Amino acid sequence: MTDPMAENRARAEWVVFGISCLIVALVVGVVLVDWLAGPLRPPAFSLEQSAVERREGQWHLPVAVTNTGDETATQLQVRATVEHPDGSSDTADQVIDFIAGGEEVELTFVFGERPERDRVTVAVVAYQEP
Amino acid sequence: MAGTARTGGEWQLALNDVLRGATGGLLFGIPLLYTMEMWWLGETAGAARVLLALLAAAVPVFVLVDTAGFRRAPGTTRFGALVDTVVALAIAFVTCAMVLLLLQRIDIGTPLPVAASMVLYQAAPFALGVAVAQDVLGRASADGERRSRDDGGPGTVADLGAAAIGAAFVALSIAPTEEIPMLTAALEGSWLALLVALSLLLSYAVVFAAGFGDEQGRREQEGVLQRPLTETVAAYVVALAVSALLLLFFDNLDVDSVPSLLAQVVVLGLPASIGGAAGRLAV
Asked: What was the ipTM of the complex prediction?
C-alpha cells in the first residue's frame, strides 16, 4: 500500500524540480543565445548631453554614455571640454570602470562657469579591452 | 515526520528544503556577492567561460548533494542527486539574482545577457553552499540542541552572544573592503528599506522556518527576547551593532554623515544578520 504523504511529497518535489529546470534553462539559454548570435561587435560609444543645472554656484552637465557595441570596455575615459569666448578652455575628465555592451552610464561634469551647449565637446578619449 | 506534518505537510517541507538551500548558499556565498571583482568577472568573462564555470561547479555540487545535500530527507539514488543538483543551481540563480538586484549591481538598464552572465558567475560557487546547507547548518543546529538539553536551554544572553559572534564571523572579511562605501553610494532609501526587510526575513527563515533544527523548541522558549519576532529583531540590532563596530575598527565608516553611516551599517548588516542567525542555530 502506498503512503499518501510520501506520494504528495514526491509530487511537491517534482513541481520544485520542474520550476528549477525552467529557471536553469532560462538563465543558461540567455547566455547561450547571446553566444550563438555571432561574433561580438567591438565597443563603440554614443554620448548624449542633458540640460545643464546650477547647484551651489557651480554648473552640472549630465551626460549619458552608451556602449552601442557588444563587448565590454574598461577604464573608459570621457573628457568634456568647454571653450570660452576669450579663447580659454576648461576640461573635466571622468573614468568609467566597466561598461558592458548595450549598457548606459550616467555621468555628471562640473564646471565653474556656465558651459554653453555649442561650446561644449564631450568625447571618449580612451578605453581598455578587458 | 510528525513535526513536519504539523507545520503544514509536504508543500511546506518542499518549501523548507528550498529555503534551507538558499540560506546555506547565502552563508557561504555572501562574501562573494559583496566582491566587486566577481561583479566585473560576470560582466567581462565571455559566455564560454561563464558556462565553463557553471559546469565546473555543477560536478562538485552533484557530489556534495549526493553525500550531504540541502534536504532533510535527501534522495538515495543517483537520479535523486541529479534532480537535487538542478534544484540547487536554480536556488543559487534566484538568490544571487535577488541579492544583486537589491544591491543595484543589476538594474533595469543592465542588458539581459550581461545580467544572466553575472548571475551565472556568482551562482557557480554559491551553489556549493546550497549543496552542503543541511549537512553544515543542520549539524550546527543539532550540536546546539544537544548542548541546550545539557544545560537547561539557551538563554537570551547566549542567543544574542551567539548572534554577535556569528555576525562578526561573516562580516569580518567584508567590513574593511571598498565595496561597502561603493554599494552605499548606489543605494537610495527605498532600497535600504528593502535590504532591512530581507535581512530580517532571512534571519527569521534560518532560525524559525528553514527546518534546520528544533524550531518548535525555539518557539516555546519563554524569555521576552526569545519569541520568534522579538528574537529576530533583537538579533538584527546586534548584527547592526557588530557591523558598525567592525566598520569603525577598520576605519571604513563615514562618521561625518549620519545617513551615509546608517546606510553603510545596513549594507553590512545583511551578511552580518545571516551570520548571526547561523550563530544562534549553534547554541
From this structure: 0.80
User: DSSP secondary structure string, B138-203?
Assistant: HHHHHHHHHHHHHHTS--HHHHHHHHHHHHHHHHTTTTTSTHHHHHHHH--HHHHHHHHHHHHHHH
- Asked if B272 has any chain A CB less than 8 Å from its own CB, the reply is no
Average pLDDT of the residues of chain B: 83
Q: Using CA atoms, how far apart are residues B204 and B202, in angstroms rounded to an integer?
A: 5
pLDDT computed for residue B6 by the predictor: 45
Helix (H) or strand (E) holding A121: strand A120-128
Instruction: Check residue A75 and report its DSSP letter.
Output: E
Which positions ≥6 away from A6 have C-beta within 8 Å? none
Q: What is the pTM of this model?
A: 0.80
What is the pLDDT confidence band of residue B4, given thresholds at 50, 70 and 90?
very low
Distance (Å, whole) CA B177 – CA B183: 11
Q: Does A38 reach chain B within 8 Å, measured CB to CB?
A: no
Instruction: Kindly give the pairing relationship between strand A73-83 and strand A89-99.
Output: antiparallel
> Does A98 contact B40 at a Cβ distance shorter than 8 Å?
yes
